User: What shape does this take?
Amino acid sequence: MSEVRLVVRDAAQDWSGTLHASLAECAIAALSADPSTLVELEAACGRYQKRTSNHPILSNLKSGLRDEPYDAGIVVIDLAARLILVDSTYSSPQLTSEICYHNGDCGTNKWLRYHLANDWVLIHDPLQWAGRAAARRRERTARPPMDARAVLYGRPLLEFVARETFAVAAVDREQINDTLKEIHVTWLLTQREDLRGASPRDVLLERHDQIGWDLQNQADRWAALDEAPPGRDESAFAYRFGGFGTHEFVEYYNLVRELLWCCRDRLLEMGLSQAASNSADALTVGDFLTSEVPRLERIREEWLDSPDPECHGRTPRSIINRERARLPEVISACEAIVDPDCPCCQMLAELPGPVFWHLDGCEMEDDFAFDMHHRTREEWEAEQRSWEMHFESRRGSQETGDSCPPLAES
Assistant: This one.
């Protein structure tokens, strides 16, 4: 008993058919790419099974809903409800697990991990799935996807930067440099109606962990198979409305700082020119936004498309888009050498396999607003106290000559 009936449902259509249970496991693992249609699910299955042009992985599925068990049981994947039913004697897949890679001819000994997003629900009672799926579809329909990037990158951000920087300059032009960080923090931590009551930081971190796991799993796949994983198409639902990973978090921090600096420089320049001309006309915030917001739009686009020498010539836009496609960044062995005279660097460069490249945000300011690892201020403050206790103990040990204690657990 090694076959099951597989049912795949998206928002518009149902498909069903019988196939080997390992293909159903592959389809479940492929949900880590957050597909929303059968076409996207088929493409994501290529992460775990080699596809051939003449034989799609899920080719046995036909239009229509048939949910009676077959042979070893039944598996239902409802993409719109984010619900999975598994009632099978063949295996019991989980939301986080690993499966064997199939090379197109047979299974291999290469085990590949996957992590599904935490809003997926896995059930095992075939009598419950239809009712649960209908209820979850209603809930999700009542809360349609939100294009958060239109807020975080668009006019709301630019108007906020221009308005808040202008307000500071109007009160005390000498203090404008000291308050740029405060403006940045306020933007990230302020709840907004156009983000459904969430703050920009909440949105940035909502799926951060899941995207991080998925990128790590794809890097492990690349290293194990010596081939790049399939990326998501830019037209895919999850690409357009998906969450933010570490690379985009870091680049977004840099973008907001760039906009703040440019707005500050513009205000200082305008202040000097007005003083030189002894102009009696006071500039209003409305006048400033009228000219400054379009200018910041141009600066944003130029910055996103400018090669960064610190990132091996990559542009911020390419780094962000690659992460949204769930593709790890790789560099050549030569690029990975930090010191050409270092024997360890030379040895690492000679090793087989890809070299993965990451941004970690080490240059960002140490503040709760910019922290990627703690969702609440209480968690972040507890971590800060843990570090303070560690350094205090370390200083005491150095004064007495004792060995340094280990870092206290947070």
Summary: The first strand starts at residue 3 and ends at 9. The CA atoms of residues 7 and 67 lie 7 Å apart. The two ends are 49 Å apart (CA to CA). The longest helix spans residues 246-277.
